[in-house]
Each structure stands twice: as structure tokens, then as C-alpha cells.
């Protein structure tokens, strides 16, 4: 597979995922459900009926009847099983987007057209008739056609995606950014996870369950979402949304980082600390309201944290951590002291999660908590007065590209 065809294939997957998301969002009842790749790509189940939908995305290919022939044959085979009572009755839908050729179906599909273009095929120079193999009469084929809908003028890739974002905003509220980076990101992961479940019953989700799982407050690192956006663009968008203030206000900012003990390098962490201090401090002698950020590092051993602070101090990078002398208990009054050009404080290190919560609670100024996590979120803090942003990253170095 060439690089170009690989990209087209991936877009085809996303097109199908987006249609699945849109299908569940458009369900009329919270108890209605979709089933992923059961009878077809997507089975939509309401209180009254089930529609099995197959999705085709060929943005660079002209429509030909052969493209959907196998889908029609498969649906007809399923229809035959409903007549014998071995399968439940469903409606059938084929949706596709093509570069052209849609006029080939403008006259509609009758029984003769169905037989000629969709049910007749040649194998090893022998002609076969699928409806004959199934033993179906013209009357039964007519009944099948009444259950079949073919739409070869389905929405283009970006147009369908726009409808998904609009539907997510309508269902869950918020901004376009939250609809895409919170809700769509999560929705994509949910549909992807359902599609690879082995058991049919595990590939079913109701609208109510879907909305509950989508509506989270953390930006998760979903590899499919990042694949679609491109990692560089993904990190740049996060920076644009949260870290591009033209005039940095004197807020109290808490940067919560997480390290992986298996790949931790002190030099990488130090470089990130320097970057946070540089970008999110104002300590000049002329600054009327000087400030510097707080930092907490999750996953760092006590010994390594001590060595890190010692090394920073030795290099002339002044840190405070709320402990005024050996053996002293943590004091929020100590940690919240103003950093100035005169006292040289560059960063305020919080050693534990209780220290973080105690300090955030003790401050009355505007507070912002930026929690970067590698796996699950490790700090739960719910206070309407405090903006708490949770962003999952693939590795620690990604944080530098975001801030």
C-alpha cells in the first residue's frame, strides 16, 4: 500500500467512525442504540426498527455499480434468512461518497436493475445469479427493495465532520474547541473500542450511555484523534487554546507534571521547569505585581525530588517548597510568599498532592491548575472558582510544545 492509499484508507475509517458518532447522536430516544459492525458497519436500533447501514468513502473514485454489489448481495442474503426465521427483520441502507458518477442511479432501482447490476456476477468465466442461488422470487425481491435505501450522494468528509461537531455541541453544550477536543476525542475512542470487541453484545451502546462516557473534563491522548489531527497540530491547538495570553496576568498558576519512572531523565525535567519559569513568571524590577508559577511533579521519588531541588539551587535557580527549616511542617504561608526580583525566587515546588490542594485552597486570587498526566488523572479537584485543565500527554516532552 502506498503512502497516499494508506492516507485514503485511514480517512475511510474516520468517515465510518464519524457516521457512527452522528448516528448515535441522532437517535430519537436516550434508550435507542447503535451496534457497531454487526449485520453491517453500523446497526441503528430504535424502539420500532433496526437499520443496517454500510458506509463507503471513495472521494477520488467515480461511482460504479460494482462498488456496492457485494454489499447488496450480503444484505439480500441476510434478507433471505429473515424469511426463514433464522434472523430478525431489518431495514438496509448503503451510504457512500464518490468523486462522480452519481447519475448512474438517478433512475432508481427496480427488480430488473437489481438483478442485472447487483445480483449477477461472473466467476471463472461462469455467470451466476445471486437471487437464483437464494431461491428468491420477484415478489420477495420487491419486498427487499422496499427495505433498501441507497444514498450515493452522502456528505463529504469535512462536511460530515462539521455535522458531528455541531451535534456534539447541541447535545453537550460548550465551545467548538470543547466539542472537538473533549467530546469528539472521547467519542472517537468509544467507537473505536466498540468496533474491536469480540462479542456482538459488547459492540452495542445506547445514546444515554454514549453521552455519559463522552462527557468528561479531561483532554485524553487518543492516538486515533491525534492521527487525524497530526501530533504537531494537536499540540499547537492546545497551546493556542490555553497558553497564548498576550498579556500574562498575575494569576496563581499551578503546573502539575507527571514523569514515567522507566524513561525519566532529570535533564528533560529541568529543561521543562526552566521553560515554565521563563514563560509564566514576571520578576523584573519594574514589575508592580511580580509572580512565578508553582510546580508539582507526580511519580518522582522523594530522594530524586530532593536531588533535583538541590541541583537547581546549586545552579543559582532559587526554589522554595513551603518548608522553612529542616523538620518544619509544610506551611502555605511560606509557599505563597511573593516572588520578586529582589528575593530571586524562580519557582515554587509543591512536594505532595495534599500540599497542592492545601495551597490552592488557601489562595484567594485567581487560580489556574494545569494538570498534565501520562495515564489516568491523578489529581481530582472540583472547585467552580478554580479553572482546572486536565491534559493527557504521550510523554513529558510534549508539555514543552504545549506551554
TrEMBL record:
Entry superkingdom: Bacteria
UniProt-listed NCBIfam families? DUF4297_antiphage (NF042945)
Annotated protein name in UniProt: DUF4297 family anti-phage-associated protein
Q: Which organism is it from?
A: Pseudomonas shirazensis
